[in-house]
């Protein structure tokens, strides 16, 4: 791998750069910068071919001594987290296993790298404080559009997929997935979705998928409960604050917990969103798909419109439905306008799947 570094990073590494190896393919060449995020030293790498981003966070002096291994390891872990075939990942990382450091190539490459650094700052609150490898943020940052000149733009992650398909000459994705049937608990109205989700996703990723499926806007707290024999046995929470209110069952952070740790062993999960309105979703586990050819979720079918944010729970939702169904109601127009601001919309499986694919497996 050719790592073309800024002056600041070269000084931190205390090495003399080599002359740029112009024979190194762009797919195995990266531009790298050293920045400070949340008062921690952070290395940001941007691929020369597709502009995919790799972040090494909280780098300490001992880490700089083995930066070569960290770069290769981070690339490997991120590609595996992208649902790529392990043999492809191994072939890619071993194709150019020796890391060589050089100066940056040109202003255009530096500009794209600086733009990537801006996006890392934008996602600073998503960086895991106890981890150098940031696979989730790598994937998240790499979904943002980047300019490639003359008004054209591209998604780095999609360009990476094409590069690797060309590199390997075959499909690149393969993972286990599971069918989930998700029903919003309502007395007089049906709202449900059936979706296929890769099993190596975390519960945090499942939360984001559920937000898309039900057109929520991620404005409130949430949690998951793993159910066994009609009893909650594990509480999977969204943040550290939840541990200030301990329960009599184990509590785990959603970002640290993969679906495969509980599915398909347990067949029912409860997801609660917004502890004020208290929207309870029942997740029933269906078939396991052994060879799933995507790295994103797909909504298979569904029914009903999810309530808008802050509608006032189930009673408020029924009042809302009554008002918007009656053009003569004095609050009809105001309620329609309010619901649009709250993201309320008809169930649209094509739009949902477009968003799920764009979200990828972040």
Automatic annotation (TrEMBL):
InterPro entries reported in the protein's UniProt record: DUF6933, MM3350-like_sf, Plasmid_pRiA4b_Orf3-like
Start and end residues of each DUF6933 domain: 2-158
Domain Plasmid pRiA4b Orf3-like per the UniProt entry, residue ranges: 177-352
TM spans (from-to): none
Protein name: PRiA4b ORF-3-like protein
